Amino acid sequence: MDLSTISIENFINNACFLCLFITMLCYWVQISSTNLTLSIPLPLQKNFFWKQLNPGFLGMICSNLLLFFSLILRWKSSHHFPLSNFYESLIFLCWSLTFIHLIFEVITKNDWVGSIIAPTALFVNAFASFYLPVQLQKIGPLIPALKSNWLMMHVTVMLLSYAALISGSLLAIAFLFIHSFLNFQTSSEQNRLRNNVSIAESLNDAYLPLLEDATDITSFSSETTSINTIDEVKQLQSNSFVKQSDQILDNLDNFSYRIIGLGFPLLTVGILSGAVWANEAWGSYWSWDPKETWALITWLIFAIYLHTRLIRQWSGFKSSVIASLGFIVVWICYLGVNLLGKGLHSYGWFA
């Protein structure tokens, strides 16, 4: 790669990092100020295309295009599909995250998911561009085992599956955080109401001897206390924040399931294609390489997730716990094994 190409690639990487950072901020501002109305004409606010072209969505499109150009540039320079080293796989993973998010937002019309996916894409891009050693970013010749059409098929499908599983698992983690927060808030409100009822009952007991002859007043006081308590409970149940949070929880659980449902078959196809490629390259379908082992563990975790959802009818908290475990396993399979493990798939940074 000549100096001019390196300069262009560095510019694209820096621009992509800045674009993802601004995109993340835009999505965070959107979810923190949902009642904020921009001073734009009302017809535009009701227009479908205007709704889609919000700042966060535009930023995600720009980031996706910049990552795409970066991959094309390396493809042109190396004369092979840019998935031959760890740096290129990170760039492709980042592109996959933005691509899946764009498709998801267009289909579901929910832009708040960007507040979860954008920081993840930013982290992956920053790790690849600014943290990886320069020697791992350089374009090198393909080793004989990688000179195969299976390179594009196997690695592309695996990274797309990682992106989908990571995205779905992140939504499950967000579900757990919001669910825990709501439980804490609800328990606090219930304790407050319980204390109010106890105080009211204590006051009634204290003044009851003074009002033995005033049965009507005592009855009225007791009924008033009960009515006030019931009104407070109804007010808690009708709280708009709680209602919105319940809706968000339902959406998070549903969207997490749908995205993981996309990533699991991709992972299955990726593992099977890798086995066929391994047999062609090394004469064995399965050698219990660390990458293969952790890919199998990842497959089993998400198979359990889908089994419990479809057969046991689990949803919400229980399934989100399994998906959150899958999030950790995916990163171990992709990042940990590549950097720390020894084997046919290891890049040997720390090995």
UniProtKB/TrEMBL annotation:
It is a multi-pass membrane protein. GO terms for biological process: cytochrome complex assembly. GO terms for molecular function: heme binding. Residues 83-345 form the Cytochrome c assembly protein domain. One of its GO terms (cellular component) is plasma membrane. Keywords: Chloroplast, Cytochrome c-type biogenesis, Membrane, Plastid, Thylakoid, Transmembrane, Transmembrane helix. It is found in: Membrane; Plastid, Chloroplast thylakoid membrane. The keyword Transmembrane helix applies. Pfam families: Cytochrom_C_asm. InterPro entries: Cyt_c_assembly, Cyt_c_biogenesis_CcsA, Cyt_c_biogenesis_CcsA/CcmC. Belongs to the CcmF/CycK/Ccl1/NrfE/CcsA family. Required during biogenesis of c-type cytochromes (cytochrome c6 and cytochrome f) at the step of heme attachment. This is Cytochrome c biogenesis protein CcsA. It comes from Lambia antarctica. The lineage of its organism: Eukaryota, Viridiplantae, Chlorophyta, core chlorophytes, Ulvophyceae. The gene is ccsA.
